Amino acid sequence: xxxxxxxxxxxxxQEGANSTLRCNFSxxxxxxxxxxxxxxxxxxxxxxxxxxxxxxxxxxxxTVATERYSLLYISSSQTTDxxxxxxxxxxRSGYALNFGKGTSLLVTP
Amino acid sequence: xxxxxxxxxxxxxxxxxxxxxxxxSLDFQATTMFWYRxxxxxxxxxxxxxxxxxxxxxxxxxxxxxxxxxxxxxTLSTLTVTSAHPEDSSFYICSAPxxxxxxxxxxxxxxxxxxx
Lengths: 109, 116
What we know:
The structure holds two protein chains of two kinds.
Chain A: E1 4-7, E2 10-14, E3 19-25, E4 33-37, E5 43-48, E6 52-56, E7 59-64, E8 69-74, E9 83-90, E10 97-99, E11 103-108
Chain B: E1 4-7, E2 10-13, E3 19-25, E4 32-38, E5 44-51, E6 57-58, E7 67-73, E8 76-81, E9 90-97, E10 105-107, E11 111-115
Parallel strand pairs in B: 2-11
Antiparallel strand pairs in B: 1-3, 3-8, 4-5, 4-9, 5-6, 7-8, 9-10, 9-11
């Protein structure tokens, strides 16, 4: 299956700082999603981004499919951004997802 | 749109009993749904693919006789943990694509199972 690696594993930021999370994957993909898992466990869809760049408020993401990586940018971080950020790619061809180990983000006041 | 619900949100059961978890697509039909498991401080691991009208397919290492999956309709999949043991305690999450042609997955809020 397609392997996925995320970095850094942990990140501590002060409120207002910017950050970049990285996701490397081992093969071409037809799907790549970024999620935020909140403290209650709910996975929030951030981006569906198999290629290109998207922005949503303070968050943006870029996937360079030819080089097999994706970046999630968080600007002007807030304490509510704390949680675990997952990148996921297909397990095989199709819909099921293989998740990276995540980046645990803590934003302090 | 693309809302997935799960019931119950959390459940505590005694060792040896069975527990059923429901996953529903609320505003779309899902011929395929997926079940994942997440242990504390770990990532999500795919357990099985639930197919409406046919048998589920299980990932390697997942016991199909222990984790029974039934995809009863285009909006409902159930996962039954049979003869539960403490090591089955975990966070179970389902997902489905919204059927609009993309591969984007939407996830339920999860069910936290504790087996005592």
